[in-house]
Write a structure and sequence with these properties.
Length: 295
């Protein structure tokens, strides 16, 4: 038993139960940990009643992405496969991702190909993952990445813990970028695998304005926390030039500015070799049509 599936949820009972039923049918039969982020729609009781074999962790408040950290504290397998309450791993995909991690000991993250349901069309972000401009080290099983998508990725649990997991400061929305930079600083590779399939049926129960606001804020905080001063200023200016001039952007900029004092206290610029890798991605990301949170 190499993999534990970790799922976080809040107030999306119907899609949650459907996803858990799909996970139950996986041929790999992985153990599953569900973290409920303070749902008010009866989700945790429904999980306890219908899926008693799963570990259920009930948080009285919405922890955001930090709920994954809580779950990983309970993981006893070497690998953890993340998904959300509206994403699920295709049968066989968990085993394929685990096999890649087994065979490539310096890879910490495998991100799969995301198919949007209904219809099974590729998510627009897949093209960018597949055509990543990062140099590909010899022996890497797929394109090298500078970040990953938590709802469609498998990670080494020990690497996740050693890098600190997801930052409580960022809460939710583009939280993977900071963790990815810290993983690369520790010498790990992130990789895309085209034959590892993950399905996503976006729930209608979401607040796109909140997610975009946090995504803009977190992109700025991550830039200021890890990039050299000159690059941080340039990247900030370019980002501001792409944002719509609306209330969501305004609120995000106010929140980002309010965090400057703690950002300066906790700032740790990346080592040169990691910065050079990420710089390769700056221009493609700026021109991306699949960027989330900032469009």
């Amino acid at each position: 038993m190499r993999v534990t599936v970790v799922l976080i949820t809040r107030d999306r009972r119907q899609s949650l139960l459907a996803t858990l039923a799909r996970l139950r049918d996986l041929p790999e039969r992985p153990p599953v940990i569900v973290v409920d982020n303070g749902s008010r729609d009866g989700s945790p009781d429904a999980v306890a009643a219908r899926f008693p074999e799963y570990v259920l962790l009930r948080s009285p408040v919405n922890l955001g992405a930090v709920a994954r950290n809580v779950a990983v504290d309970h993981v006893r397998t070497p690998y953890v496969a993340f998904c959300d309450d509206d994403t699920w791993w295709e049968p066989g995909a968990v085993a394929r991702a685990a096999n890649l991690l087994d065979a490539h000991p310096r890879v910490a993250v495998i991100t799969g190909r995301i198919l949007v349901e209904p219809g099974g069309r590729e998510d627009p972000i897949v093209v960018e993952l597949r055509e990543s401009p990062l140099p590909r080290p010899a022996g890497l099983p797929g394109p090298a990445l500078g970040s990953f998508l938590a709802g469609a990725s498998m990670l080494r649990a020990d690497a996740f813990r050693a890098a600190g997991g997801f930052s409580p400061r960022l809460w939710l929305g583009g939280e993977e970028e900071l963790l990815s930079a810290d993983l690369m600083t520790k010498g790990w590779h992130l990789c895309y695998a085209d034959d590892v399939l993950v399905h996503h049926q976006p729930s209608r129960l979401r607040d796109p304005h909140l997610r975009r606001r946090h995504g803009i804020r977190n992109t700025l905080w991550t830039t200021w926390l890890r990039r050299p001063a000159g690059t941080a200023l340039l990247r900030t200016g370019r980002l501001l030039g792409t944002l719509p001039r609306d209330r969501v952007t305004g609120a995000a900029l106010v929140e980002a500015a309010a965090g400057i004092p703690w950002v300066l206290r906790e700032r740790r610029p990346l080592p040169r070799h990691v910065e050079e890798r990420l710089r390769t991605l700056d221009e493609p990301q700026r021109r991306s049509r699949a960027r989330r949170y900032v469009s």
